[in-house]
Amino acid sequence: MAEESNAGFEDQDAELLRDVREAREGDLRAFELLMERYQRRILADCRYITRDENNSEDLAQEVFVKAFFSIRKFEGRSSFRHWLQRIKVHHCLNHLKKASGKNELSIDDEAPVIHEHLQVPAAAERNMETAAHRQQVSEILNSLPATLRIPLVMCDMDELSYDEIAASLGIGLSATKMRIKRAREQFRLLYQEPGMRHES
Amino acid sequence: MNPEGNSGDPDAGEPIEILKELEWETSERFQAQVRGKIYRRAATSQVVTYSWNLPKVALLEFARLLSHLFQSLGTNKEPKQ
User: Tens of pLDDT along chain B (81 residues)?
Assistant: First the structure.
């Protein structure tokens, strides 16, 4: 059923893409409909990869600008969503490189900071639509060091493959898998009930 | 789409699955700002293309002008009586 809804979603994307390509110069209505479908997700990704709240909207906007001017090159070999996420990942990683003032991306292996107040109580309503819960999940993600947070976002938010993540970050496949595994463990640790937390 | 992704991955599942649905509300001006950036970039691209071609265009037009001028001088000469 999930596959059917994904296929339906991708069909709608394909239709909108066709409209975008056929639109007259200056007519962005079809592109704006496409943007509407992904803008909140792209913004969330930009926030969590860069942890730069001040610039995350600018970054997200630039992702869409890049996508617009590259749209004729999109051949449809992957889904539009996947293609857009790759643009976003590269744009955010470039931003991080510039911000660090280096040519290569260096994500420091800081020790994770575990805050008790981040833990979601078992009795709390785990509804993703509540702002408080979303805020807590955001704080958990932001508390992870970049070495774990970035691969986790790329894998479990962007659904990129391990190979793609390894290539984007310039690390080996084993290192990628290990970091994602550790990141998931840390995320679960911070998400667990207070009484069940294990000291690392 | 993602053969090595977390479908069937033992490390995935709750609460990691929550991350797939994570979104952040954009500001009201988000789309308008994207539109503005697209228009500015398109306009800049046109200006750069035009500037690059301008010397060639100007030279061609000048050559046409000269050609027209010489042709006019030739046809305006009155035959000797």
Answer: 344 444 456 667 778 888 888 888 999 999 999 999 999 998 888 888 888 888 888 888 889 989 988 888 876 655 555
Which residue is listed with tokens 């463990």?
Answer: A185
Centre a 10 Å sphere on the Cβ of residue B61 and count the other Cβ atoms it contains.
10
Tell whether A48 is within 8 A of chain B (Cβ). yes
Nearest to B37 among A32, A61, A191 (CB): A61
Q: Are A160 and B4 in contact (CB under 8 A)?
A: no
List the beta strands (DSSP E) in B9-62. Answer: none
Nearest to B30 by CA among A187, A62, A9, A90: A62
Q: CA distances (Å), A2 to each of A5, A8, A81, A152, B16, in order?
A: 5, 10, 16, 22, 17
Question: ipTM above 0.90?
Answer: no
Query: Cβ of A36 under 8 Å from any chain B Cβ?
Result: yes
Nearest alpha carbon to residue A16 among A89, A104, A79, A108: A79
Is A51 in contact with A144 (CB distance < 8 Å)? no
Distance CA B49, CA B4 (A): 44
